[in-house]
Specification:
about 260 residues; mainly alpha; two-stranded antiparallel sheet; 5 helices; DUF7745 domain-containing protein; DUF7745; coiled coil
């Protein structure tokens, strides 16, 4: 029969295979490790025991000790400066300076990262760096004040450049719009002149056509007048001939 407390403690952990644990440990970084629980935010912690830089932990089955540097990290204080060789030598750790701890954070400083790079080159890593899971919660790092100032200066320069480009773009757009308006106005005036010319030509042709129609109408009326006069003359001659014939018949009848 197992211990119920141990069963409860291990029941909260996700059971993974060797490959899953290997992959999980390979992708961890200072931002993915939960160094200390939020409820365990201590202002002070034990860094030594008398003159000994290690703190003994007494138990029922023996005695052990813990690393003050690691305790500093687990209590939420960043490693503000890279540790010296003396501090990372086993059983010769001097942790007095850690009592003057900086504000808590889970991020590594720039100086620590710069110190870590040559250490990695010198000692190497047992595995290649792999891409972190995007779903993993990353804890923000403490930015270096110098880097922050440089980034702020770059941001101000970028903002000034953006405003200058915006003004230049606005001026260019205004000039382009003005040029387009002038070109549109010129094209409209030219089109108006062309339409006026076409309208004048159309009126001219209409006038000529009307004059031709009037001439044809006058000519036709003159012809009709002549025809009417000729018909009237023929009718008058026919009437005179009938009257002459009637007189002749009357004369013959009298005889």
């Amino acid at each position: 029969m197992g211990c119920p407390i141990e069963d409860y403690k291990w029941g909260c952990l996700k059971m993974m295979t060797v490959q899953e644990w290997t992959h999980h440990l390979m992708e961890v970084s200072e931002g993915t490790i939960q160094w200390y629980p939020k409820w365990n935010e201590w202002e002070t912690f034990i860094a030594n025991c008398g003159k000994s830089p290690n703190v003994p932990l007494m138990g029922t089955q023996g005695c052990s000790n813990y690393n003050p540097i690691l305790t500093l990290r687990q209590n939420g204080y960043p490693i503000m400066t890279p540790p010296t060789e003396q501090l990372i030598t086993p059983l010769e750790l001097h942790g007095q300076s850690m009592q003057d701890a900086k504000p808590k954070s889970s991020g590594a400083t720039t100086s620590y990262k710069e110190w870590l790079k040559p250490r990695i080159k010198c000692n190497g890593l047992p595995f290649k760096k792999i891409q972190q899971d995007s779903r993993t919660r990353l804890i923000p790092e403490i930015p270096d004040p110098l880097v922050v100032r440089e980034l702020e200066e770059m941001l101000r320069n970028a903002e000034a450049e953006r405003k200058a480009l915006k003004r230049k773009l606005t001026n260019t757009i205004s000039l382009q719009v003005e040029t387009q308006e002038e070109e549109t106005l010129y094209n409209a005036k030219r089109r108006e002149v062309e339409l006026k010319g076409q309208l004048y030509g159309l009126h001219r042709r209409m006038d000529m056509h009307m004059e031709e129609l009037l001439r044809e109408r006058s000519h036709r009326e003159a012809i009709e007048t002549k025809e009417n006069l000729a018909l009237n003359e023929i009718a008058e001659e026919h009437r005179r001939a009938e009257e002459k014939e009637q007189k002749t018949r009357a004369t013959i009848a009298e005889l």
